[in-house]
Design goal:
By secondary structure, the chain is an alpha+beta fold. The chain is built from twelve helices and 21 strands. It folds into two domains: 241 residues, 3-Layer(bba) Sandwich (FAD/NAD(P)-binding domain), CATH 3.50.50.60; 153 residues, Succinate dehydrogenase/fumarate reductase flavoprotein, catalytic domain (Flavocytochrome C3, Chain A, domain 1), CATH 3.90.700.10. The two termini are 14 Å apart.
Length: 460
Amino acid sequence: MIDVLVIGGGNAALCAALMAREAGASVLLLEASPREWRGGNSQHTRNLRCMHDQPQDVLVDAYPEEEFWQDLRKVTGGLTDEKLARLTIRASSTCRPWMRKHGVRFQPALAGTLHVARTNAFFMGGGKALVNAYYRSAENLGVQVRYDAPVDALEIRDGRFIAAHVGSERIEAKACVLAAGGFESNREWLREAWGQNERGEWPADNFLIRGTRFNQGVLIKHMTQQGADIIGDPTQSHCVAIDARAPLYDGGICTRVDAVSLGVMVNRDGVRFYDEGEDFWPKRYALWGRLVALQPGQIGYCIIDSKAIGRFMPPVFPGVQADSLPELARKLELPEAEFMQTLDAYNAACRVGHFDHTVLDDCHTEGLAPVKSHWARPIDTGPFFGYALRPGITFTYLGLKTNEKAAVHFGGQASENLFVAGEMMAGNVLGKGYTAGVGMSIGTAFGRIAGTEAAHAAGH
């Protein structure tokens, strides 16, 4: 019988498998996808948010625990378990030497991402390179890996894991780690969670999935039926406003449009609906997907002028370009009169001081609702550009309640041999909102804990 069974194939699963193997356990990892799509959403990641009290290789200055905690508390609106959040934060300061040992390489922040050079360590080659490095290391260490192996049921007796089922095959293990992702690719479940709005729309029908098509939430649903303790709101997720032309699945990082804070966002009625300059983009970018989801038709339009070009990461698809704002409205098929009324009011309300997109500057609007708090400059220099944006879900926050040992809970009691990591428990730390790189911090911290605890439960 295998010592530790790991279900999932992304960052958290791989961290668990590596830690369990290092502890001396025999390990089998089951990945639902084919080999070429392995790695889940981790293949689309770029960086890890890291606490550090002084400069460290690719990380500049310092990013102490308290600042990381306050950033997390702010974006979640306090919907976070402080104990588990601080555990994640502290773990983020010590994991990189271990990651390097398993082949992960880091690089300095690139142009367009310099405002996270202090807080985030970037992976050389991105998430795909990280995933490949971990798989190489796992196989070198003797971890067994099986692809095209979706687990559809677990045998659990009195809170103890007994076996997993892949179709008609039954796989026993002394301990198990669940790290199989959220339910973002399950359209039926998204529809059920979001329901129908007052306009008679089903918002979830217009959502794009930034990540893997294989995250169907099968095990979250199954664990609910098994009586596991659940945490999180099914409508909360890492949801980004992405290019409306993005593919339905696996668009990843390149579908993001990072120009929102440099211009204005309007809905299909040509009206602004939120403060584009509320805070730095890495802290607020994942708010905009949900904001767009609440707009008519689940679509929004980012409007910038030539002054913004070169100040954000260039998107894959070029924006719609026009020599005048009325022409841009027509090209985007927005109501011209309402659009111009919005832009004229915004331009007149701008109070431009010293523009600096790297700090919370003093450029703001006056007498305008909603306000634009920072980086407010008139949109008046052609050519003008517009991007149609839709909600892009990366991962959902509904998952399994856990503790500092990554144990799954049943009726408040921690399982002795069933553990959880990654997206399947992220809702313990992320009740809502997001800040760049924290998903990898959670997955790495709890993947490593879960692997160690599973090996211990298996007698190592």
